[in-house]
Amino acid sequence: MRRHRKVKIVATLGPASSDFATIRALFEAGADVFRLNMSHGTHEEQRARYDIIRRVEAESGRPIAVLADLQGPKLRVGTFADGPHDLADGQAFRFDLDPAPGDASRVQLPHPEIFAALEPGAELLVNDGKIRLRVEACGADFADCTVTAGGAISNRKGVNVPDVVLPLAALSDKDRDDLEFACAMGVDWLALSFVQRPEDVIEARELTKGRAAILSKIEKPAAVRAFSEILKVSDGIMVARGDLGVELPVHSVPPIQKRLVRACRSAAKPVIVATQMLESMIESPMPTRAEVSDVATAIYEGADAVMLSAESAAGAYPVEAVATMDNVARSVESDPTYRDIIESSRSAKRQTVADAIVAAAREIAETTDISCICAFTQSGTTASLTARERPRVPIVAMSSEQDTLRRLCLTWGTHCVQTPSLERFKQAVVNAAKAARDFGFADETNQIVVMAGVPFNVPGTTNILRIAPCDERLIYRTDPE
């Protein structure tokens, strides 16, 4: 099975997509990566979903990536004595540490770290920003506020604090338990929620011990400000527009998205655009035109992947949502304007031999009759650098390392093929030609580009580029032992 598009699709699993038939249908409709949302469901439920994914993988013969998304520190108000209360614009309201049930004038905010960081003039947002309050006075155990945008406040509603970097641990106790569970289970990517600083990523990396790649979710203003440093220590990025659009003016999110996507591409690190992409398909079999345009915009920008959340996890039409994304991607990528945009935004930074080789591979493929680029990769770097070039021809990522191939399922344009461990370059060429033929990228009359590193099975040694025929008889005739 091969995809006829370059951008990848991430589908979240949940109550609407937990059985084998549905997960298999999601994969066949176009899902390349499955997301396990650790905010919902038990470890037993997540294990069952993971086992089904690996069963689908084994039956399809194609690597599938699994991404575990940690909940992160959730900030919530306490409870109210008499149900919801309406807060009016201009009224006074207090947050404090008192566990007594709240009323129309106050409620507990059981997070002393918030009070420690607040200053007069800071803004507090409740219930996804529907209620907004300005801090007038604050101390170690209280914040007196004025309501600037009123609404109904009720038990356990979420709180956002956009103006300050909170002295919160990057990982809660639940996150640490979930991280260890997910890594022991064998997930390929671990997404960190509410990242504020590079140290948050470094802490998670120490805990994973190389068992999973780290993907940082950018959903706070502090993360946007520290993005360059966060990107350096991350393996990938998710532009999580939900909370980002709550804590920042909504009109600022599109340019931030564009800037972050371009920076990730320059760094050759995969980037997912997520949140509310086809939200109406939770209840409707058809998306809105605005949603289709939103998905298309992310693809035109060069994102590695687009993601479905509740649409595939809890919606009435999970398979249709994946199929819609697949159709949008095919339509966009067949548009000549897409190539113009992608090529005009190509990074010119080339500092290593590997950079030069993958750039040369792309240029050769675009100026001669080449059917695909076959990149042998031990750690995934060669394939990622090739994807950064956004070549017009398919990328066949080849490795003996199953973990590497699974992680590359998130990277733009890569078709991942597992090979035996190789010792000689001729073996690489023969395997590349066979894979190109087997998966329909070429036939015996075509030529391919083959990239590898000698010595084999050593990360970071990409140093050979060969234009090779797909006819094995010609390979053996022209290649020396």
TrEMBL record:
Its EC number is 2.7.1.40. This is Pyruvate kinase. It comes from the Bacteria. GO terms for molecular function: ATP binding; kinase activity; magnesium ion binding; potassium ion binding; pyruvate kinase activity. The keyword Kinase applies. Pathway: Carbohydrate degradation; glycolysis; pyruvate from D-glyceraldehyde 3-phosphate: step 5/5. Residues 355-467 form the Pyruvate kinase C-terminal domain. Keywords: ATP-binding, Glycolysis, Kinase, Magnesium, Metal-binding, Nucleotide-binding, Pyruvate, Transferase. It comes from Paracoccus versutus. Belongs to the pyruvate kinase family.
